[in-house]
Predict the 3D structure of the following.
Amino acid sequence: MPLQALIIDDEPLAHEVISLYAKDIPFLQITGHCYQATEALEYLSRNNVDLLFLDIQLPRIKGLDLLKILKRKPLVIITSAFGEFALESFELDVCDYLLKPFSFERFLKAVTKAMEQHRLQQPVETPIEKATPDQLFIKTDKRFVQLEMKDIFYLESAGNYVKIWTKDEFLLTPRTLTSFEEQLPAGDFIRIHKSFIVNKQHVDYLEGNMVVLKNGKTLLVGKNYKNAFKLI
C-alpha cells in the first residue's frame, strides 16, 4: 500500500513540485494539502497520514513547533529553503531534510528512506511479537525472544535497529525506537533522548542533563526531552 502523504507548505509552488514528483513514485500518494499549521492539525485529527512533507517557515505556527505539538506524528521529511534548522529537525526524529530547490533524485532518496522506516514500524505478522503488561516478545537473529519488562534497563536506537539492554548485554532487533515508544507502557518507560528510552525502575539518580542507571550506565537527556525529568 502506498505511503499516504500530506504536504504542509505555504507556497503553492512547493505543493506543485512535490505532487509532480510523487506521480512518478508508485509507493507514494499525496492525499492532502495544507498551507498552515492550524489547518494541518485539523487535517491530521481526521485523517490517517503516513508521511508529512513539512516546510519550516509557516505562518503563525512554525513547522518545527508543529512537530512538538503532535503527540503522535507521522514520518516527516522537512522541505525548507533554510539549512540552519537541520540539526534541530533531526533532534525531532525527522526522516530527512530536503533543501529547496531539490531534484527528483534527491526527493526519491528521501521518500525511499521514509518507506523503509515505515515498513520497519509495521507489526510483524505473527501473534507472538506483542507486549503484555509483564513481557515483551521481540525478533532477533531470525528467532523470537521473550523478555521480562522488569529486566529491560533501556532501549537504544541503532540506525534501522534497536538495542534492548538488560543489565549487562543487549539484544538487537530490526525495529525503530518510535515503534517501541508507542508499544511500551508509558508509565514505566520514558523517552529521554532521540536515541534512548529508559525503564524508570532502573534509574538510580539524575545529575545535570544525565540519567544514571543502577547498572552504572550513564545516558544523556536530549534538549527536547527535558520534561522527561518530571516523569522519572
